[in-house]
Amino acid sequence: MFDDALAGQFHVFGFQHLLALLIITVIVVAIILFRKRLRTPFVYRFFRKFLALAIINQEILLNVYRFNEHELSLAESLPFHLCGLAVILTAYVLLTENRTVFLNTFFILMVSALLALVTPAVNRNYGFPHYRYFQFFISHGLIVINLTFMLFVSRYYRAIRYRHIFKNVLVLIAIAPIVFVINTMSGGNYMYLMGKPGSNTLFDYLGPHPWYLVLILAFAIPSLFHIFYLPFYFWHKRLLRRYYARA
Description:
The chain is an all-alpha fold. It has helices spanning 15-33, 35-38, 41-68, 82-96, 99-118, 131-153, 163-186, 211-246.
């Protein structure tokens, strides 16, 4: 599980990648299909706490691993990548049921986690069954699973409106300067503000630093947020048709 010989064994869209995506997809679909049963008070409370503790515990174990491997550092171990923030925020929302935080960060967190799963940057491309392989897909998979749980079981989908696209963008713009200062002080590259994360990611198609940041903010983020909003747009449109049909 900690064998260095597994480095370089992970390949994007290889069997190991597709298997991980399949397992995450099955869990997400199960949450949607069994959402009504998951709303039973005891079951709902149990899974809110279980999912929150699961995603926090995996982050703690990651830093224990980094410490044992002498990889723990301010430059790489702080939770200031978007997916690191997602770990904290999804756990917080699950435990507190803070719908406002969910609505103002949903698009940021879901888009970043899904993009990471589709084009994963697994540390040193460790393949199955290395710890870093499991940790990457468990952490990013749990972000998507937690957001799905809040969306469909907690029924936060009912509150999502078009304006939340812009609120998410504003939150991202507000976070970026703070993370930039942290990068400058720590020598890190959180949120990839200082450089690209490496090969096999969508950053490869967006030009050199710092121009890819401009393209991401001006085009990629608004486009992706609008695409992710489409299901909610059609759902609201369907509700309006039902309302006027009854009137």
